[in-house]
Amino acid sequence: MSEKTILVVDDEPSIVTLLQYNLQQAGYDVITANDGEEALQKILEEEITLVVLDLMLPKIDGVEVCKQLRQQKNQLPILMLTAKDDEFDKVLGLELGADDYMTKPFSPREVVARVKAILRRTQIPTSEESTDHPFVVLGDLEVYPDQYEAYYKKEVLELTPKEFELLAYLAKHRGRVLTRDQLLSAVWNYDFVGDTRIVDVHISHLREKIEEDTKKPVYIKTIRGLGYKMEEPKHG
Fold first, then answer.
1. CATH at residue 10
2. Least crowded by CB within 10 Å, which of 41, 102, 117, 184?
3. Of 99, 123, 147, which residue is a domain's last?
4. How many CA atoms lie less than 13 Å away from 25 in the CB half-sphere?
């Protein structure tokens, strides 16, 4: 038995069969659900490592499943699937806390590759640099890449895997201006067709969690026309 169990949620039997076969061939245990209600139940009952979640589902759709999990502080990695090549859907899914996004039709091999990439990112340090910088402290913010933990004012920050990666990358490169394209490439690992709104959405989520005043951020500064920079807050 594999230590990693993938939950595949889709109401199209052919897609479920295809994904189940290919993920099992890659060494994962796979359980399935045909609607959002069943998916939420299985997440409660089983030790799930990652969810491959269709957006359009009976009973409870994928957006609502994602929303409920994140509201419950469940940071289970989610790869969202949709039949619609819709920019709004893409950003909506990622805003709700999905870790990655694929549009149907897709190659099963690509799904397996994305699953592996998400699990790699969420279970080990995001880069070899973490051995040089085991942790970063900036003001009231502490980031521990090796432990995959972050604290603000000694309280654990509840972050999605993607939010953590972005925070860790900004922290490791503190003091440097990073363009949105650099962040897309480093954190998302593949081309989002220049859709830098995804970066802005995640920056906004981080600011809500670590800034006293999101309109006047002291940790993650916007460098107009360039990108973002993380720095030590200036007191006084």
1. 3.40.50.2300
2. 41
3. 123
4. 11
